[in-house]
Design a protein that fits this description.
The complex is a heterodimer of chains A (106) and B (661). Chain A is 73% helix and 4% strand. Chain A is mainly α and 106 residues long. Chain A has a domain of 63 residues: Orthogonal Bundle (Helix Hairpins). Classes of the chains: A mainly alpha (106), B mainly alpha (661).
Chain lengths: 106, 661
């Protein structure tokens, strides 16, 4: 098992992935603009991708790489649907704020 | 003693039975469905159907009495339900006799009813019910299995309910109908229980299998079956303590009282015990029990009959008493005698009821004998009819009742029940007393209908079977009974006198020849006291009864002082007798009050706290958990994101502490 790539230890890669993930999470929770939320979610996806790839290299197991491709595909589909929803909501409201769209509250 | 062979085999099948059985149902449906169109024709159609049914019954005589190598009668299978559960119709001497009375006396009473019910707004409905009753009663007596018998048993109860409550605008009639139905259903439950026991043991509902296995039941089971059956018989046949519905049932129209509550339906208990003779013959305890209850009923009915004022209630208690005789007869094992008393009683009691109907009809629905008197000259035909009936029921030699009653009394002694023998003789004397009392008060002396009721000691005219409108004293206002009512009564006079002669000759009598294959030759320890002695002793008691009645009500001075005497007697009546020995009160306290208390307990404790309470608790829990779950559904996407993150964090923390495995 390799412990570093290109002179950078695995821990640092994982630290970067974690930081990216939590930045994305914070953005998704804190921001009210749906476009920014989507960008934050993309950030979390890519943090996960980074972790997958690093672990794939570390364990010499290509499953992680395949997972990364899957995540990219799902992210693309998710972005398409989410943007479509954003467009629909934008048509009915002058200004898009996710907190204003709460018709499903119990 | 009884020969169980007869029910194990029948000689042949007999499809005509189905027609006989279903014909009255057709009449009932016709009268019911087309009553408004048929109007008075409904009565004639129903009557014609009853007569045709009687003709069919007579035509079936040969089929019912045929016997071959121990097989007896004819059977017509109807439905093969499942193994051991086959429904069919059976015609043997016993059911043939009952069918003859049901259709024959029934047809005469139908004819009478056309006159009696004339002008009633529900004329067609009445005849629909009457034909329905014939159908129900034929179902009862023609069934070859216990389930069919129970179906008929329930249906006659229903017909009785319909007809007691026929004048449903009278609250007392509705109450009487309900009472009769409830008590009868209690009896139905008894029979059903007996069927369970029999099916459990034999796996079959047929009479044949049940009786063939009579000696395999064992004493406990056999006694349980007999007692269960007798509960049904006692409820239907007004035996103590289930007799209280019968006097109340007199709320129905008088022809109904004659047909259902005297001649046929109330004798179904006698039929049941005679039918189940193979069971009773195997169980001395059941015989003792049933014979004793029959004797007690005979005595009690006679005691209460002595103090009634309503002419129909006198006859009702007399019916109860006479059925007591029958039950005593079939109970102790003198099946031929008990059935014979049913046979003669059907004629003379129908005769008495129809005769009283003539009086009631002529006096505009007056039923209280205190407001009658002197009717001998005004209604001579009714007087003759009633006189024949009274002589027959008292057992005056030569009249039908004397033969059968003496046979029952003698039978009690022959089967080893001297106490029942004594009860039978004493009851015969009391019967003579109350019957002649009725005769003297009704037909002799002066007419009292124009006297104010209170002077006769009638405290509550509206409750006492007294018509609310004072009957008109003028003779020409009494509309004479139509010939329709007189002809059936006149016809009934013949069997009331002569039917008993069938029993004449003991072992050589036609009666014995008719029933010998059914009940077998009894190996009875023969005659400690000869029949002639029994007859003479009974006659002595009857003479005393008549003489006392004559002294109290029949002498010239008694007739002259009748008003004063009746008033004193009415007001001075012992409360025990006035309340009929408090049987109603006791049954009320035992069953009605306890049921009500149970109902109150349920409605106050069980229902609100257990049933409703558990439902309410379920609702509260659901509401609470719903509110909790709803509080997470804020609709804020960002909140959901937080929940998601927290959830994932929890998972992560769990695996961090515990490891993946």
């Amino acid at each position: 098992m390799a412990t570093s790539f290109a002179g950078v230890p695995i821990f640092d890669y994982e630290a970067l992935a974690s930081i990216l993930f939590f930045i994305g999470l914070a953005g998704a929770i804190a921001r009210r603009n749906p476009l920014v939320m989507l960008m934050s979610i993309e950030l979390m996806f890519n943090a996960a991708n980074l972790a997958f790839i690093v672990f794939a290299r570390a364990w010499l197991n290509n499953a992680g790489q395949i997972f990364a491709f899957l995540v990219i595909t799902v992210a693309a589909a998710e972005a398409a649907i989410a943007l479509a929803i954003v467009v629909v909501v934008f048509r009915s409201a002058p200004q898009v704020d996710v907190d204003d769209v709460r018709v499903l509250h119990g | 003693m009884a020969n169980p062979e007869h029910v194990m085999g029948v000689v042949g099948s007999y499809p005509l039975l189905v027609a006989l059985w279903l014909l009255p149902l057709l009449g009932a449906v016709l009268c019911w469905a087309f009553g408004p169109q048929l109007k008075r024709a409904a009565g004639w159609i129903a009557t014609a159907i009853a007569f045709v049914a009687f003709g069919l019954t007579l035509a079936s005589w040969g089929a019912g009495t045929q016997s071959l190598n121990g097989a007896l009668g004819a059977d017509q299978p109807l439905v093969r339900w499942m193994p051991g559960f086959h429904l069919g119709l059976l015609l043997d001497p016993l059911s043939l006799l009952w069918a003859c009375i049901i259709t024959g006396v029934g047809a005469l009473i139908h004819l009478y009813s056309i006159g009696y019910m004339e002008g009633d707004s529900a004329f067609a409905r009445f005849f629909a019910y009457m034909n329905f009753f014939l159908f129900a009663m034929l179902t009862l007596v023609l069934s070859d299995n216990f389930v069919g018998l129970l179906i008929g048993w329930g249906l006659v109860g229903l017909a009785s309910y319909f007809l007691i409550g026929f004048w449903f605008y009278k609250p007392s009639a509705v109450a009487a109908a309900r009472k009769a139905f409830v008590i009868n259903v209690a009896g139905d439950v008894g029979i059903m229980f007996a069927i369970f026991l029999i099916v459990q043991k034999t796996g079959s509902i047929g009479f044949g299998n049940a009786f063939a296995a009579a000696d395999t039941y064992g004493p406990t089971l056999l006694l349980a079956i007999c007692i269960s059956l007798f509960i049904g018989a006692a409820a239907k046949s007004a035996q103590v303590p289930l007799h209280t519905w019968l006097p109340d049932a007199m709320e129905g129209p008088t022809p109904v009282s004659a047909l259902i509550h005297a001649a046929t339906m109330v004798t179904a208990g006698v039929y049941l015990i005679a039918r189940c003779a193979p069971l009773w013959s195997h169980d001395g305890n059941a015989q003792l029990l049933v014979g004793t209850i029959g004797g007690v009923t005979a005595l009690l009915g006679a005691v209460l009959g002595m103090v009634q004022w309503d002419i129909k209630r006198i006859l009702a208690y007399s019916t109860m008493s006479q059925i007591g005789y029958m039950i005593m007869g079939v109970g102790v094992g003198a099946y031929e005698a008990g059935v014979a008393h049913f046979f003669t009683h059907a004629f003379f009691k129908a005769q008495l009821f129809l005769g009283s109907g003539l009086i009631i009809h002529a006096l505009s629905n007056e039923q209280d004998v205190r407001r009658m008197g002197g009717l001998r000259k005004r209604l001579p035909f009714a007087f003759i009819a009633m006189l024949v009936g009274v002589l027959a029921i008292c057992g005056i030699p030569g009249f039908s009742g004397s033969f059968s009653k003496d046979a029952v009394i003698q039978g009690a002694l022959d089967h080893g029940h001297p106490w029942l023998y004594a009860v039978g003789i004493v009851t015969a004397g009391m019967t003579a007393y109350y019957m002649f009392r009725m005769l003297f008060v009704t037909f002799f002396g002066a007419y009292r209908g124009d006297i104010d009721p209170s002077e006769l000691g009638i405290r509550h005219p509206e409750f006492a079977g007294t018509s609310l409108h004072a009957p008109d004293g003028a003779a020409d206002h009494h509309h004479a009974p139509a010939w329709l009512m007189n002809v059936p009564v006149a016809i009934l006079i013949v069997p009331s006198i002569f039917a008993g002669w069938l029993l004449y000759g003991g072992a050589n009598s036609p009666w014995h020849h008719f029933f010998d294959p059914q009940f077998g030759v009894g190996a009875i320890a023969r005659i400690p006291i000869p029949e002639l002695t029994t007859t003479l002793v009974t006659l002595a008691f009857v003479a005393v009864g008549i003489f006392v009645a004559y002294l109290r009500y029949g002498t010239k001075s008694a007739r002259a002082a009748a008003v004063e005497r009746l008033r004193r007697e009415s007001l001075g009546m012992s409360p025990i007798l006035a309340n009929a020995f408090y049987f109603d009160v006791a049954l009320d306290a035992l069953f009605v009050k306890t049921s009500e208390a149970l109902g109150r307990l349920v409605s106050r404790v069980l229902d609100p706290h257990v049933v409703d309470g558990s439902v309410r608790e379920a609702v509260i829990v659901t509401q609470w958990s719903g509110a909790l779950a709803r509080s997470f559904q804020t609709g804020l996407v960002r909140a959901y994101a937080v929940f998601l993150a927290v959830g994932i964090a929890c998972f992560a923390a769990f695996y961090a502490f515990h490891g993946v495995h």
